[in-house]
Structures are given as structure tokens and as C-alpha cells.
Amino acid sequence: MAITTTPALPVSLAGRVPGLRRLRGHSGVTWVAAVWVLLLLLAAVAPGLLASDDPTRLRPSLVLMPPGEGVFGTDQYGRDLYTLMVHGTRSALLIGVCSTVLGLVVGSAIGLVAGYAGGWVDMLVGRLLDVLMAFPGILTALLIAASLGPSTRNLVLAVGLALVPVFARVARGQVMVIRSRLFVEAARSNGFSAFRILWRHVLPNSLAPVVVLGTINVGTSIVLAASLSFLGLGPRNEVPDWGQVLSTGQPYMATAWWITTIAGLVLTLTVIAISLLGDSLRDRLEV
Amino acid sequence: MSIGSSPTTEPPALAAASHEEAPTRETLLALDGMTVTFRTPAGDRLPLVREASFQVRSGEIVCLVGESGSGKSVTARTVMGLTQRDPAMAVGGRAEVLGHDIVSDPSVTAGLRGRDLAMVFQEPMSSLDPVCTVGTQLTEALRRRHGKASRQAERSRLAELLAEVGIVDGRRVLDTYPHQLSGGMCQRVMIAQALACAPRLLIADEPTTALDVTIQAQILELVDRLRTEEQMAVLLVTHDMAVAAELADRVVVMYAGRVVEDAAPVALFDQQLHPYTSGLLRCIPPMVDERPARLVTIPGGVPSPAALPTGCSFHPRCPHSVDLCADRVPELADHGGRRSACWRAEELSR
């Protein structure tokens, strides 16, 4: 019979960094993280509420002004950095969430079939996933994004597909545990079809770890998307985007440190906040 | 000493066990030399069930008794077509379920399960899906047999079914999740689920072990009624000799994967034709003395299928064994309407 142990969930960022580990399980910190994520959601849904200015307005007279001019200062085109960051939230969250959902759905489906079928199907899928996992996620994403061309949709596709093997692995392990449980055999003794057993009984019971992994992964996808965008594979120039702010500020790091610092800081805080929320969800679901 | 002496206390309901024989009974389960083997990763073939032969006819309750590890549950699961799913398991001999040969084509059971064939498992808490409500799971079973009906009709039918297994507030229970119910409640839900499909052949693997005696009596009464009214056939796997005495039309005793004795309960409790059956019956603690005497046990344990004794598998634990018993395997031989697999059956019953 097949091995029926659950693979350990990949540890989130907050679990890996020693200083951050202390923050986990601290409810005050979780609340701060929640407030930050809520702010981001607000910025994504209604950026005009937080920054009424037009993010693309160029002000040649106010180029590379330090924080104090506006809130965060301006970039080399005189765009207001605060407005730019607020308006860039939508693209960051959209890509992060959509690509995670894509990876989760496709990965779980693959894992579900492989784990339930077992035998040679599982073997074949397992080896293919091994090949994909041998490349770092960023490389797979880079490859896909570069061959599809720069656009938001392609960025989602690239990051999502790079995440597929991770979700497939976790889902497969979970399905193998669930399918050997007695209630699945009881369902079989009721004469239900394999598809029905998979859909109604195995899938819902296997989802908890996959969902937790998904929440933790939203942060990772945002970083991955920002990295690709930094490399010029992001959305078109008119769309405000965090990765783009990072890359445009990079040549001015010595003279205008605030551009990259602010963008990097917002990105880091977002990833940590999402990661902490994911951890808290994991504790709640006891997976 | 005769092995035929019955235990000091007679099981209470011997009289209830005799049922009128209807001549038109259809054989719904027929095992003839059925063998189930398990292939270990090392390549050895371990016999879990060896040449099991017995029949269950409509309107008949057959009890399968024996110690843990004697192959009762494997037999039950094989009849359901569930062991065959495991590639390490191989089924041989002849086995017919509702007229279909399940040895050459185990997939026929898939069409029978949940319709003419149903099973109750022995672990109630883990037999129900934790993320579905009781109602959802029972509805699934009901629809498998009867097709889709209106939600109201389905719910009232399910509440009726739950009432039959002793759950009074059935409508409330339909909306609960399994973890909100006790083990006994889960077991009754499982039984209701099996009965929802009105099977012609019910396989019950220790269905009442988790229940207290009053509920147990209620469930057994229900099974007895369905047998009489609906001509349902039941293969009841049990440890409980009292249950067997009360309900069974025939008792099949298994030991180390082999059927060692097969008889009507009255005859069996009166006189055993196999030393193992006598041993089992002697293990029931007497209820008459004020201070119970020391519990009688059969020394030793069921041998592992990897290390079966030669000859009769029971001979190392048998007080009556002779040289022949260690040499040759006794056949399941006919003894005037009942069967026993013991070399000394005739001699010891005298």
C-alpha cells in the first residue's frame, strides 16, 4: 500500500525567521496584521478614499523630493510615492490572490486524482511534479512570463503555474490519508461512484491544509509577482505597481533612498502580515 | 470427558431461535471454498480466509462467530467486494452474492452495493464523514436506492428510519454533524443508513457492540422484524454468543480463517461438535453464582496467518488433540444436518 503520512506544511515566512517566530500566536500582533491587511483591502477596492490624487500625474517641478513632500516623497518623474503605493495595492493583491487561487485549484485537482488513483497514475504525476519542483518557483514563473509576454494576466498565469506543484503535493498527501479512512469505505459500501466519493467526501475532508497553505502563499505570490514586475515582466506602465516602483527607484538608490525603501517596506510588511494571518488560521483549524 | 456438555447457564432465548422453514427461500449468499490471501511486500501469501463454505438464504440470519483475527471481518468485507480493491488481496474458490459470481468479476458488487447489498461497519465514529451532516449522508443513501424525491418527503422518511433505530428526535439529529453525536447514536445512524436502501442482503460487522443493552435489544428486534417481514437475509458478525443464540437461524464458527463448525443454534448450544466451539461457550461467565468463579479462557491465542500450525489449526490449544490432528487438516464434514471440521467429532460427541 501507499505511504499515508501527511507531508509537513511548508513553514511560512513567519515560522522561518527566528525573530518573527516570537510574534506568532501573539494575538496583539495578529490584530495589527489584520488591520494592515484590511487597510490594503480598502486601498485595493477604493484607492481614491485613501489618496485622492492621480497616481500617474507627473510633476516636473517636484522630482525626487524626500519624504515630507506628500507623505513618502516623490519619484524621479515627480509622481507622489504615497499615491502610487496606494494605487498599486490593487494590482499586487489581485495578482497575489488570483495566482494563488489558480495554483490551489489546479494543484489540488492534480493532487486529488493522483492521491486517490494511486498506482502508476500517482507515480507518473509524482515524477512530473519532481521535475517542476527541481526548478525554483521564480525560475519557472520567469520562464512562463517571459514566453507569454508582459501583462497582468500573464503574470497571474506565470505565478499561479509556478505554485501548482506545491499545492499538488500537499493535496495528494492529504487525500492519501483521507481515502484510507473508514467513512470512505463506508461510502463505497453504499455503492457511490468514485467521482461522487472524491467530490463529496474526500475533497472536503482534505481541504483544510490546502487552504492554510493558500493563505500563507498569497504573500509569497505577491513577492514573486513584484520580482517579475521588477524585471520588466509586469503590467503595462500606466498601471501603478509595487514592483515597478522598486525597479524605477533602483538607479536612484544612492540619492533618493526613499523610493526603494518605501516600496520594499510596504511589500515586506504585507508579506509578513499575510503570513501571520495564515499562521493564525492554521492554529484555528488545527492542521 | 465429552466435549458436548453445554455451559452451566443455558442462553436464555433458545426457544426463540427456531423459525418456521419456508420452502421457497432463495440463496442470496453462497460461499464454496472461498479463500482470501494477502500478499506481503516480501512476496509471501498469507491465507486470511481458507476454504470458507456456508450459505445465507432470504429471511435467514446467519451469525459468524469466532475470536478476533479468525477472518470474520475479512469474509464480510470480501462479500461486499471491498477487499478486492486492495491489489495485495486475492480471492479464490467460489463466492456468489445475489446470484453473481464475485470471484471472477468483483466489479458486479459495485452495482449491488447500496441497493440489494448493504453493510454496517463496526466502528461507528469513523464510519461517518465528519464534514457532512447526518441528514446529507442519509439522503445520499436514500437516493441511491429510491431516486430523488422532494426534500420534505425525504426528510420525513429519514426521520421515520431514525425512529426505527431508536432515535426519537430524528429531525434534529438530521441537522447535526457526527462529532456532535455519541458512539451509540452514530452506530444507529449507520444502521439507519444501511436500512435506507432496503437491502435484500445485509452484512453487519458487530453492529451492536458499541450500544448499551436496551438499544442493542431494540436494534436486534428491528433486524429480526425485517427478516420476517421483508425476507431480508443477514450475515451478522458478532462476538456475542447470546446474540447468536437469540437471533440466528444458523451459527457459523470460524477459527484461523477456517469454518470449523456450522449448526443451528439450538443444536449447537446443546452439543458442540468442535472443541473450539465448546471452548468459546465455556468462556461465557456464568450469572447464577453470587460470587463468579474464575473466568474460563482458552489458553493461547489465534495463530498468525504467517505461522499456522500444521494439520488442524486449533490442535496446539485443543485439550483433545491426538497425533492425527497435527498431521492432517480435517475436512468440514457433514454430521446429520450440521457440519464440523474435527477429526474426533463423532468420537467426542458420544
Q: What do these coordinates show?
A:
The complex is a heterodimer of chains A (287) and B (350). By secondary structure, chain A is mainly alpha-helical. Chain A contains 12 helices and no strands. Helices cover 73% and strands 0% of the residues of chain A. Chain A is elongated, with a radius of gyration of 22 Å. Chain A starts with 12 loop residues before the first helix and ends with a helix. Residues 1-9 of chain A have low confidence and may be disordered. Chain A has a single domain, classed as MetI-like (MetI-like fold, Orthogonal Bundle), CATH 1.10.3720. Chain B has 350 residues and is of the alpha/beta class. In chain B, 32% of the residues lie in helices and 21% in strands. Chain B has 13 helices and 12 strands. Chain B has an 8-stranded mixed sheet, with helices on both faces. In chain B, a hairpin with a 4-residue loop joins strand 11 (333-334) and strand 12. The longest helix of chain B has 18 residues, at 213-230. The chains are: A mainly alpha (287), B alpha/beta (350). At the A-B interface, helix 9 and helix 10 of A face helix 2, strand 6 and helix 4 of B. Chain A: It is found in: Cell membrane. Chain A: It is a multi-pass membrane protein. Chain A: Keywords: Cell membrane, Membrane, Transmembrane, Transmembrane helix, Transport.
Task: Give a short overview.
Helix content of chain A is 73%, strand content 0%. Chain A is mostly helical and 287 residues long.
